[in-house]
Specification:
Belongs to the nitroreductase family. This protein is an alpha+beta fold. The protein has eight helices and four strands; from the N terminus they run H-H-E-H-H-H-E-H-E-H-E-H.
Length: 222
């Protein structure tokens, strides 16, 4: 596929046909994705390829606590898991939330757990009084490359992070060393419905000239 078409049609895919995703295709997806940039070209990413049904069910269990809080906060009119706005829902209400039984981690052909070695990231924002973001530059380009490469092969997936709230459980389940962070859990499969056009904000709404409060960025007329 044309690169622009891949970027414009890589949607979050949560429903799958059940068609197989063979190991050779998955290896090709990862082979292309590995060329993502990373700080200092340290390439600290690791992928755990999970096909085992019991392991996937355990990953779903790890995601449930985070999903419960997410749903409870939505119902309360909050922005779920937002670092600037603390949760105002009590623990008893959160615990009573029923999480839908259907999960893409169960119905996908494969689940990829993407990790990053914290020993090789450069977190320039680690001393700022806010949640850290910069270290993600060493892993999320790779995660996105996986989704782009999957789209190019006719497959799709979605970047999920609910299980990260229970990272110690995920580490124990998959034998992940303590110096690695779990960055994403990606279910992949053949989409039931492949979107051909996505809706996004126009450039003028997301880019400004020279300053954050500058004029909207548009190509100048010649």
């Amino acid at each position: 596929m044309d690169l622009n078409d891949v970027m414009r049609t890589t949607a979050a895919v949560r429903e799958y046909t059940g068609d197989p995703l063979p190991d050779d295709v998955l290896e090709r997806i990862l082979d292309n994705a590995r060329f993502a940039p990373s700080g200092g070209n340290r390439q600290g990413t690791r992928v755990v390829v999970v096909r085992d049904t019991a392991t996937r069910e355990a990953l779903i269990e790890c995601a449930i606590p985070g999903a419960k809080r997410y749903i409870a906060q939505l119902r309360n009119g909050e922005s779920p898991w937002n670092p600037l706005h603390p949760c105002r829902v009590d623990e008893q209400t959160i615990a009573a939330v029923n999480v839908p039984n259907q999960s893409p981690l169960r119905t996908a052909e494969v689940v990829l757990v993407v990790c990053v070695d914290l020993g090789v990231v450069a977190a320039f924002d680690q001393h700022l009084n806010r949640v850290g973001l910069v270290a993600g530059a060493s892993v999320y380009p790779f995660v996105w490359n996986i989704l782009l490469a999957a789209r190019n092969e006719g497959y799709g997936g979605v970047l999920t992070t609910a299980a990260v709230a229970e990272e110690p459980r995920v580490r124990e389940l998959l034998g992940i060393p303590d110096n690695y962070a779990v960055a994403a859990v990606l279910p992949l499969g053949r989409p039931v419905r492949q979107l051909t056009r996505l809706t996004r904000k126009p450039v003028a709404e997301i880019a400004t000239r020279e300053r954050f409060d500058g004029v909207p960025f548009r190509a100048r007329e010649r």
